[in-house]
Amino acid sequence: MAFAGRNPGMLEKLVIVDIGPEIDPVGSARITREVVEVPEEFDSFEDAFQHVNAQNRFASESVMRRRLTYQTRELPNGKVSWRYDPEIREQRRNGTGAPPPDLWEPLSKVTCPTLIVRGSETDTINLSVAERMVETLADGKLVHVDNAAHMVFEDNPGGFNAAVADFLA
Fold first, then answer.
1. What is this structure's pTM?
2. 85: buried, middle or exposed (CB in 10 Å: 19+, 13-18, 0-12)?
3. Which tens digits make up the pLDDT trace of 33-67?
4. What is the side-by-side order of every strand in the sheet holding 140-145?
5. What is the 3-state secondary structure (H, E, C) of the chain?
6. Contact 64, 45 (CB under 8 A)
7. What phi and psi, each to the nearest 5 degrees, are found at residue 143?
C-alpha cells in the first residue's frame, strides 16, 4: 500500500490480501498470543506440525507441512525451532515494536485498479475497514473468499486463485 501510494505510475493493478491500514484488535491480539505463547522449540518436526495445525481450521495438511518446512529449522541438539528473528517475539511480548505507519494517506493515492481479497473468516481486517478501503481507492473492488481466514491463499487456494485470476484477466 505504501509503495503503491508513493509510486502510482509503476503499477497496472494491485492485489491486497487480507490486510489494511488498520488491523482488527481481535486479530492483532490473537497474533500476539500466538507469537508469545508458542514454544521456542519442539522435540520434532511432527510436534511442531501438530501445534500449528491445531491453530488452522482451513489449510490442508500438505499446505501446513510446506509452510512449516520454511518456518522452522533443525537445531544442533536435534530439536526444531523457528527461523524468524527472536526480536520479533520480544517486541510482541514487550510492546516495543515501531508504531504502524498511517497507510490511509498512501492508499488514497493509489490510482490503479485494486482488488482487496478478504477471507470470510478473517479476524485481521474487519469488514468496515475493507469497505472504507474500497471507498478510499480510485478504483477498488472487494471480494470475500469463503472458507478462509487471514492466510487466504493457503486456506482456500482455489477460491483465492479464482478471485485473483478474474481480476487480472
1. 0.89
2. exposed
3. 888 888 999 999 999 999 999 888 899 999 999 99
4. 14-17, 114-119, 140-145
5. CHHHHHCHHHCCCEEEECCCCCCCHHHHHHHHHHHHHCCCEECCHHHHHHHHHHCCCCCCHHHHHHHHHHHEEECCCCCEEECCCHHHHHHHHHCCCCCCCCCHHHHCCCCCCEEEEEECCCCCCCHHHHHHHHHHCCCEEEEEECCCCCCHHHHCHHHHHHHHHHHHC
6. no
7. -125, 145
